[in-house]
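Subject: design request, 295 residues
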């Protein structure tokens, strides 16, 4: 049995650089270890949280009361012609870069999206005209009870920034993707232009979780927030990014409750102005004192 650590800070394991302590924590590298850890969590009645690369999450100041299973050690990517078999802890950007370097299209517009392949599948990460699920062939994983599964693309329900994995107690181990052979120079151009757009429009130099809110139908969350005059608005150490209003920044001292309160303030202001309730894209981990806004 792989050693399980106690009382580990989660702050540096989140792209927000925010979060309390995990009661128990373990980083795994092999499938057998995952199954052992799941068995341990069941036997000790510990709630399990699956951690990838720590993007798109806000960990509470109270941390996690049970076991955090860190999958960032699963990073192998194996290629078979236009098919990539990718472990869930690998960076999505690495998979995208490797596909473009080989002249394979299908994910070039996902360049620069932070986080793991597993997390991207759970959230059905996307940008511009592409989503990660479009190239998916199959996913292998285990349930928290230790039962293995192998699902085809048609077995999984994907939606806008969501999937059936969000409602299930599953641990993704690896995924198979099918790409399409395309003109390499055109792919490299699209890949490079996507990265330039991100650098121009997004605050990549300050800790954040990525886009905070989902795009409401017919609108852009960032534009609605900006029109409410909230760019640069702060609560504690949390700030609405002056560069892109759908990002919240940790100025260096933000607590999770600061961010949560700012999210609620944004929801309230946008709803009062436009009658639109912004739905958070960020995943809340642990317990929070501040309830989300309800009209």
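Subject: RE: design request

Done. Sequence follows.
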């Amino acid at each position: 049995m792989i050693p399980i650590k106690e009382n580990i800070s989660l702050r540096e394991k989140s792209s927000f650089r925010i979060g309390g302590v995990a009661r128990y924590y373990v980083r795994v590298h092999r499938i057998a270890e995952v199954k052992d850890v799941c068995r341990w969590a069941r036997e000790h009645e510990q709630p399990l949280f699956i951690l990838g690369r720590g993007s798109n999450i806000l960990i509470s100041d109270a941390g996690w009361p049970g076991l955090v299973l860190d999958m960032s050690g699963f990073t192998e990517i194996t290629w078979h012609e236009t098919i990539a078999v990718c472990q869930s802890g690998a960076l999505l950007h690495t998979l995208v870069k490797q596909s473009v370097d080989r002249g394979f299209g299908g994910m070039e517009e996902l360049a620069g999206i932070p986080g793991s392949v597993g997390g991207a599948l759970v959230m059905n990460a996307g940008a511009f005209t592409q989503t990660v699920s479009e190239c998916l062939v199959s996913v292998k994983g285990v349930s928290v009870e230790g039962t293995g599964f192998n699902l085809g693309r048609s077995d999984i329900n994907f939606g806008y920034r969501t999937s059936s994995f969000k409602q299930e107690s599953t641990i993704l181990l690896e995924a198979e993707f099918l790409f399409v052979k395309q003109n390499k120079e055109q792919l490299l151009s699209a890949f490079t232009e996507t990265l330039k757009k991100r650098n121009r429009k997004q605050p990549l130099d300050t800790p954040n979780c990525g886009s905070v809110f989902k795009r409401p139908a017919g609108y852009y969350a960032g534009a609605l927030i900006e029109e409410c005059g909230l760019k640069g608005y702060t609560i504690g150490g949390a700030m609405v990014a002056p560069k892109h209003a759908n990002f919240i920044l940790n100025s260096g001292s933000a607590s999770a409750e600061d961010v949560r309160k700012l999210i609620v303030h944004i929801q309230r202001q946008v709803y009062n102005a436009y009658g639109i309730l912004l739905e958070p894209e960020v995943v809340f981990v642990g317990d929070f004192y501040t309830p989300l806004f309800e009209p």
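The radius of gyration is 19 Å.
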